[in-house]
Amino acid sequence: MAAVRVLHCVAGLAHGGYESLIMNLYRCIDRDAVQFDFVSSFPGVYESEIEALGGVIHRIPFITQKGPFVYTHALDRVLAQSPRYSIVHSHMDKFSGLVMRQAKKAGIPVRIAHSHNTRNEGGLAFQVVKDYYGNMVLPNATHLFACSRAAADWMFGPEANRAHILLNGIDPERFAVNEMARASVREEFGISDECLVFGHVGRFTPQKNHDRILDIFALIHKQAPGSALLLAGTGPLLDEMRQKAARLGLADCVHFLGSREDIPRLLQGMDGFLFPSLHEGLPVTLVEAQAAGLPITAATTITSEVCITPLVKQLALESSDEVWARTALEQAMENRPVRSSPRQQIAAAGYDIRQTAAWLTNFYLGLAQSYDPTAGGPRS
């Protein structure tokens, strides 16, 4: 029997929170039973891996590139292809409303809207557009997913309680404490073992608050002059943050790493993780950092659902940079001699990706068996 092909709709395939979740699932899911295909607008590092795993990538221009009509027309062509998809799973937050509407028009029987955030990005006009499409989610989606209760509340409002919380699982074994990896990271960046290394993984966008990360690290560096900061990610604010690091006199100790495929290794080289995001759904990178035994100083704007272990210390964004710097330093110094991987806690909390992948495989198969994909309706 041929595998059920699920069409995942995403903006792009670069490193990011929901992209990491999808790829973690894709690597672990039973691909003899379920196969992933993608609608994507922006290229990214995952494309070659997806194709090697048997996935098809339908590349179409994004809404912000050529407008909603061009995007809709291109999406309609994908949805009309034969053999027809019986399941469409959209990860585009409120833009998922457009995907759900077109999938319903195309007769796709299973339409999943998945919330990965708790707030719109962009300026006022962009937010108005997203809210417009967000109003299309509930009338057109057949199933609702979210990464956290807060993400469900934001996107689904009165229907949030019927959303399934699909935890942002990881493979804990990939993040197990590894002294060789730690040594190789420090050698790569010329950092001695005695020095403290802080880090962050995330796109350079306003949401991630890199401006604040640099202010906090500037104070850390004053108290620990040999300390370094590793920033993995790309995005529109990257050049601006490079310039700020230079203005703060930190050009030699702040390392801008770009998009990296060795995040588990990089986490091993750190002693502390800074995460003052303005808002998040449930950041998978914080689950990864905990699996690596890394102490985290995170904002209270992030749902407490991510606090799987005592490694996470949450502070209000209103707290001073001095409080953030002191807390991060204390955590790093306290944890450094006794670092270990809390694999059992990660698994017990439901964040082992193998558990999630097994559940999702059964979920997809159960839905697919209930519908005739050639007729677009329930089987008799």
UniProtKB/TrEMBL annotation:
Statement: the UniProt record of this protein carries the keyword Metal-binding: no
One Pfam family of this chain: Glyco_trans_4_4
Gene Ontology MF terms: glycosyltransferase activity
All copies of domain Glycosyltransferase subfamily 4-like N-terminal, residue ranges: 16-169
UniProt domain Glycosyl transferase family: residue ranges: 185-343
Gene3D superfamilies in the cross-refs: Glycogen Phosphorylase B
Protein name, as recorded: Glycosyltransferase involved in cell wall biosynthesis
PANTHER family (UniProt xref): BLL3647 PROTEIN (PTHR12526:SF636), GLYCOSYLTRANSFERASE (PTHR12526)
Keywords in alphabetical order: Transferase
Entry annotated with the keyword Disulfide bond: no
Alphabetized InterPro entries for the sequence: Glyco_trans_1, Glyco_trans_4-like_N
